[in-house]
Amino acid sequence: MSIQTMERAFFDQTNALRFKKGLVPYQDDRHLSSIARQYAQVLMRHGFIDHTSPEDNSTPGERALQGSYKFQEIRENLGQVRTLTQPVTIIMKGLIKSPGHYRNLVSDCSHCGMGVAKQGLDVIVVQLFSKPIEMLTSGGHKRDLLGKLHIVRSSHRLPPFQVISLPYLDELAVRLAGFPEGQRLSEEQMNSCLDGIGNCLSANITQSHDIHFGYSVGSTPSFKHFHDLILNRQGRAIALGLAQDQNTGQIATVTAVFTAA
Fold it and tell me: Which domain holds residue 101?
């Protein structure tokens, strides 16, 4: 049985279990599978399984982030068997009998990825389950929002903002998209965000501009929390961060507006 066939069998048996329990099936996440497969290969090289990597002491969450995978929650199951006769069924039976592993198989996560490594008679599987957070920059949402912003400024006879790229704001949006409804950043956290923005910019920008930071979390991208600043005649530049929680659909919009000091 090939590695690809085993990975598919693990996925199918997991969703068959969820179907029996009346649960929504997991979505097959290729990105997550790639991360799981790489870790399965690491474990095979070292000959044992552990949630902490024997090579760099990374955790499941740290390995996902190293693989540029954005998530609100992530869980991991590990399984190992020394036989090529029905290895998937044998491992799955063991995972189902284990309360902790079983909870992951029937969790409220939405996506999963299966990674298998095989060497001789040895088979290792890494199962990852997640609530991913989708970055919206590639889907044109950021471009659309900036377009609306420029229309608003133009209607008030104001020049368009210079757009600054700040990946730091997208990272902030990822964290905020998973916030419970109504939760807000504290003043200390807001100041920390401002410091983080300043650390990403050149001294020339920070010395000649005042930075105004804000965010909103809702069903659509929004800059309503910065409406006054958007129409500020001293406004010179803007940076946006967007992310969506795929589990709830919430979209976090993070904005930094730069005004002349």
Answer: 3-132
- Domain end among 84, 104, 132: 132
Task: Decide if 246 contacts 216 (C-beta within 8 A).
Answer: no
86-128 pLDDT, tens digit per residue, is 999 999 999 999 999 999 999 999 899 999 999 999 999 999 9
Q: Are residues 128 and 186 in the same domain?
A: no
Packing angle between helix 3-20 and helix 87-97, nearest 10 degrees?
40
Query: What CATH number does the domain containing 91 carry?
Result: 3.40.33.10
Same domain, 78 and 101: yes
pTM here is 0.60
Tokens found for residue 127: 């199962």
H/E run at residue 258? strand 251-260
| Residues 198, 97 share a domain | no
Collapsing DSSP to helix, strand or coil, 41 comes out as: helix
pLDDT in tens, 5-35: 999 999 999 999 999 999 999 999 999 999 9
Q: Is 26 exposed, middle or buried (0-12, 13-18, 19+ CB in 10 A)?
A: buried
